[in-house]
Amino acid sequence: MRPATLDEVAGQSHLLAPGSPLRRLVEPPDDAARRAAPGSVILWGPPGTGKTTLAYLVATGSGRRFVELSAVTAGVKDVRAVIAEARRSLMAGSEETVLFIDEVHRFTKTQQDALLPAVENRWVTLIAATTENPSFCVNAPLLSRSLLLTLQSLTPGDIRDLVERAVVDDRGLAGAVEIDPEALDHLVRLAGGDARKALTVLEAAAGAALSDGNTQVDVDTVERAVDVAAVRYDRDGDQHYDVISAFIKSIRGSDVDAALHYLARMIAAGEDPRYIARRLMVHASEDIGMADPTALTTAVAAAQAVQLIGMPEGRIVLAQAVIHLATAPKSNAVITGIDAALADVKAGKIGTVPAPLRDAHYPGAKALGHGQEYVYPHSEPYAVATQQYLPSDLVGTRYYHPTEYGHEREITQRLHGIRRLLNPDG
C-alpha cells in the first residue's frame, strides 16, 4: 500500500501544496526548477507518517537513482562509497542519485560530517529521516545546509481513509474482507496516527478472520489479533520531552485528568519513576509554592516512597502526588521572586550590607561598627524589628508578590503588616 504518487499520500497536506519544496523535488517541470529544488532535505516526524514513502517518491517521480542507507547498519565507508558512485554517475552524464538515510539521528558526528561535501556540491540529493528533533541530533553544518520539513501524525480521518482503501485496493486485501464500522473505529484508535501500525493491525485482523473462515472483521477479531496498543514513547528522544512537558503543563493548568493520563503514559513506557518524582518536586515549588506549602512535602515524600517501594506499587504514590499538585491552588510567586532577585544581583544591584547586620563575632568587628544598633526581633512586638535589612541601593524593592490563592491569601495579609512595621515611612 505504499503510495505510488503524491496524490495517494495520507496527510501532510501542508508539505504537498503546489510549488512546495517536496513537489519541486518529485515533479520538477524543467531544468531550472530542478536547480531551484533543495539539495538536502531532513524529514522529521513520528513513525508511520510517510518519511520513507516521500523519499521513494522523490526518486521515482523525478527519475533519479535511489540509494537507501540505514544509520543502524551503515558506516562512514558505506556513505563514502555511495557518494563516490554518485560522482562517477554525474561525471558520466547519467542519472542523479537520491541518497535516503533512515534514522539519521543514529549517525555519529563523523558519519554526518562525511555527508557534507556531497550536500555542498550537490553530488547527491540527500533525504534524511528522523523521529528525533534535528536540532539535538543533527550536526549544525549539515542542518544549516538542509531544508527541514516537519511531518505531522496522521489524523483519525487520514487513517480511516487509508484503511478503507487498503481493504478494497488490489495492492491491499482486494476486498477479501469487510470491516465493521466499530472495528474500524477501534483500529483507528489503536493506530495513534501511525499509518504503518494501522496497516499492520488491519493485516493481522484480516488474517485472523480469514483463518476462522470469516470475511467480516469485527471488534473481537481486532482485539484477538492485537493484544494491546504499544505506547509511543522514547525515553531518549523527543517524545520523552513532549510528554513530560504536557504532564507538567497539565498539573500547572489544574487538569488532574490530563495529568494522570500523561503520568500513565510515562509509567506504561517504563520511564524512570525517580525522574517523574524529581519533576514533581520542582513543580511543587515553581508553580504552587506558598499557595499550598504542603505540596512540596507531598512531592518529597512521594520521591522517598518510590525509592523505598519501587514499581509497580510506586505508581500509586506518584498518582497521589500528582492529584495533590494538580488540584492545589497555584502560584508562581516563589520562582518569580528568586528570579527577580537574581536578575538584580547579576545586573550589579548589590549595594553594601547594612552595618547592623554584619558579622560582629571576629576581633575588631565592633570597632568597625559591625553589629551595632542591631535590634533583636524577638524583643520587639510581633517579633518584627523596625530596621533596614536591604542594602541602601535597594531599599523599597519588592521581590515576593504573593497571590490571593490558597495559603498565600493569608501570607498577603500578614506580609502587608510586616512590611508596614519594617518600613513605617514607606
Model description:
The protein has 426 residues and is α/β, with parallel strands linked by helices. It has four domains: 6-150, P-loop containing nucleotide triphosphate hydrolases (Rossmann fold, 3-Layer(aba) Sandwich); 156-225, Helicase, Ruva Protein, domain 3; 238-327, Zinc Finger, Delta Prime, domain 3, CATH 1.20.272; 347-422, post-AAA+ oligomerization domain-like. It is 49% helix and 7% strand. It has helices at residues 21-26, 31-36, 51-61, 76-91, 109-113, 116-120, 134-137, 140-144, 156-168, 181-191, 195-211, 219-225, 238-252, 256-268, 273-288, 294-309, 314-327, 333-346, 408-422; strands spanning 40-44, 65-70, 97-102, 125-130, 147-150, 178-179, 216-217. The strands form two sheets. It has a five-stranded parallel beta sheet, sandwiched between helices. Helix 14 runs antiparallel to helix 17. The longest helix is centred in the middle third of the chain and has 17 residues, at 195-211. It starts with 20 loop residues before the first helix and ends with a helix.
